[in-house]
Amino acid sequence: MEAEITSYIKQNLKTCYMGKSVHFIPVASSTMDEARKLAEQNVPEGTAVIAGKQESGRGRMGRAWLSPEGALATSVILRPPLDALHLLPAISSIAVHRVISQTGILASIKWPNDVLISGKKVCGILIENSFSAGNLVCSIIGIGINVNFDITRFPDIAGIATSLSIESGRPVPIGEVALNLYSEMEKLYDLKSRPDLILDEWRRHLGTLGQRVTATVGDTVLEGLATSINAKGNLVLRMDDSSFKEIIAGDVSNVRNPDT
Ligand code: BTN
Hints:
Shape: globular
Largest sheet: 7 strands, mixed
Strand content: 25-35%
Helix content: 25-40%
Order of helices and strands: HEHEEHEEEEHHHEEEEE
Bound molecules: biotin
Strand order of the largest sheet: 1-2-3-7-6-5-4
């Protein structure tokens, strides 16, 4: 599996830096930790880690992330300028959206960076930033895509998740998904001085917009109409009293269909 994935990437990757150096770890606790160790050794921006499987994959909001063999678990090291940090959820989720769309499957993004197919989660993204003395040292972008696995084997997520192999009805090569992902990420990351272009593409694919949603922010649950994404990438809700609330981070779900 390792040779299949890494040699495919090495032979076919046409990026300048994204995924140019890929570290494959057959069994990792979390690619986030492996990437952090590499970042501390000052490896070049775009260096990536792929795990054959993760034993303690982590998700947003302290949740666990299931990452058996057949899933793509990758973390990429970036060192963006501070003023581009807010674009990373958009850049990474659009990149995944593009990769899935290229296979002919219709996907949508749930703010901030889940990717769904027919309302079921196929990808989750975790972004961890390190700061030192107020300066951003690095951002680790962790991307988990359910590529080739039979979700029915995992009853906890069977009703709310899907995989590319289920949706396409055929096995999907993980190396190809990783390569296309690095390639789309580089194109988008290179556009970071044009946030308008990135945010516009994000808005076009965000299934969240126009829906009545609940947003869980810490202990508070807000309900309103998801009306827009502002220039900071935050979600704007119109509340029932016609006031507007900006959601910077949190969990959002559709009121009518809470899994989406
Ligand atoms: C979420 O939806 O909660 C985010 C899930 C992020 C999972 C990926 S898999 C690769 C990287 N390593 C981890 O431990 N987490 C991220």
